[in-house]
Amino acid sequence: MRALSGLSLWITILGTTNAFQFMQGWKLPTYDPNAKAAEERFGDKKLVVLTGASSGLGRKAAQALLLSGEYHVVGAVRDMDKMEAVMEVDGFDTDNFTPMYCEMNSFDSVRKFCDQLDEFRLGKPIDRLLCNAGVYQPSLPYPKWSVDNHEQTMQINFLSHFLMISRLLPALRDAPNARVIMVGSVTGNDNTVGGGGVYPIADLHELEGFAQGFTNPISMIDGYDFIGAKAYKDSKLCLMMMANYLHTKYHKLTGISFSSMYPGCIAESPLFREKRAWFRQYFPVFMKFITGGFVGEHEAGQRLFQTAHDPRCAKSGVYWGWNGGPREGRGKRALEQNGQISGGGGAGGGWDSIFENDQSAKVLDVDRATLLFHYATKITGAEWPELKAVTSPCPTLNVVGAVTKGMVRREELKRVKHSQAKEEKKKKSLRRKLVLGVDRVVTFALKNTVGRVAKLLGKRVLGEIPETAKQGSFHETQTPTEIKVETVDSVLEQLDRNQALLNEQIEEAQPSVVFNDAEDEKLFEQIYVKTSVENQNATSTSSLTPSA
């Protein structure tokens, strides 16, 4: 009975449109030597990779993820000693938190981190990738250069995350409902006061800096002089644009959700460690009690956790924000709540106030996003995996596809590319000659062995081929009738002939019409006279009769 019920379930699944989604991640049963070890290490918890987990927003988000009891968090950090201290102070569950060294200032370090992570996860898919690490150096009068000779802010905030996503995409693709979340900023979205009303404005122009390789002395993506604040804003704009681009390119074919979010202005964040002392002292006070746009690290961490955990945030291609703003918390209310209220510029309120925020035209620029993807791939040396299309769950189609794949490859090698320009006849490569030779031998062998056997079996099982199948339809083929197109003169002549014939017919009919009218008139007169005579006789008779 169990076998029958299982078979019924399979038939039901394969008989619905859900079969495509089911078969997308289905694989033939195989023996995985690491399966038991992976289960012992992770249990049923989801695997999360979080960059910048040792401080600020990342630290609080890691704490929230661990407290939920549903995740194993891998923290990518550049200071392992600091991370261990944070784990002890915050009471991290060390069984479910694994720190790993990753210097975002170096592409080589990012690659090594990804390799180490692949070994550590024992084949377990990655369920969440939170691109949080960042640096903000607005007061720098000159650029700092990374290990790879690129401007530091852009590499740490965007390029290294770009490379990391490309390396971890296969592991994300294997997870059901995986998410990649990029921490954006209101400063990268110029349809807000924070992004469009404060100079410098985030603007990539035509990406001239990236087009030239983005190495020293080129320090800005647009190719102009270095401005520390603009470098940060440009990097956040790049992250938000890339979230949209990867959503368009990969979401439907992989099921991975790509989105960005703005947690609010964390005025006391270590992100401002590069700012001057007076700014670090008074900026939090200004944000708390004047604008009401302050968001504490704890609340911001809860928001990043929400985008990773909340089922609503599984939606792809979204820029998440939280309802609220300066209008909801100034003056007295800010003082009463110690400034920790709804943040400005879309920072918003609590868990239930999350919403899909508007994105500027720059963030939604598909053409520039395509260029950005192309240049960033070239700069980082990223290798993006081939797309995994969702195919029919029909087993026969899969078998036929596997069998014909080699044949298609061989046939393509036989094709010759043509061009308008005259070219000398190229000699066939040794590989092409070998392929064509092998193809002839294999084709001849199959035709005279497997082909003949199949033909014989077909006759034995199905019988002779019917004559109708050989000769086709018995319907007679009719020659299409030629339609003669007459000239204007011939048409006019035909009309004249028709008119003359009509006149003749009218003239022939006229006497009979006249005759018929004369006969009718004569008949009428006879009837009228007869009736008059009868009336007169009746009158005279009545006058001679005596009265009673």
TrEMBL record:
GO biological process: chlorophyll biosynthetic process; photosynthesis
This protein's pathway: Porphyrin-containing compound metabolism; chlorophyll biosynthesis
Name of the top EC class for this enzyme: oxidoreductase
GO molecular function: protochlorophyllide reductase activity
InterPro entries linked: NAD(P)-bd_dom_sf, Prochl_reduct, SDR_fam
Entry annotated with the keyword NADP: yes
Signal peptide coordinates: 1-19
Key words, A-Z: Chlorophyll biosynthesis, NADP, Oxidoreductase, Photosynthesis, Signal
EC number in record: 1.3.1.33
Family: Belongs to the short-chain dehydrogenases/reductases (SDR) family. POR subfamily.
Family annotation (PANTHER family): PROTOCHLOROPHYLLIDE REDUCTASE A, CHLOROPLASTIC, PROTOCHLOROPHYLLIDE REDUCTASE C, CHLOROPLASTIC
Stated name of the protein: protochlorophyllide reductase
Source species of the chain: Fistulifera solaris
Taxonomic classification: Eukaryota, Sar, Stramenopiles, Ochrophyta, Bacillariophyta
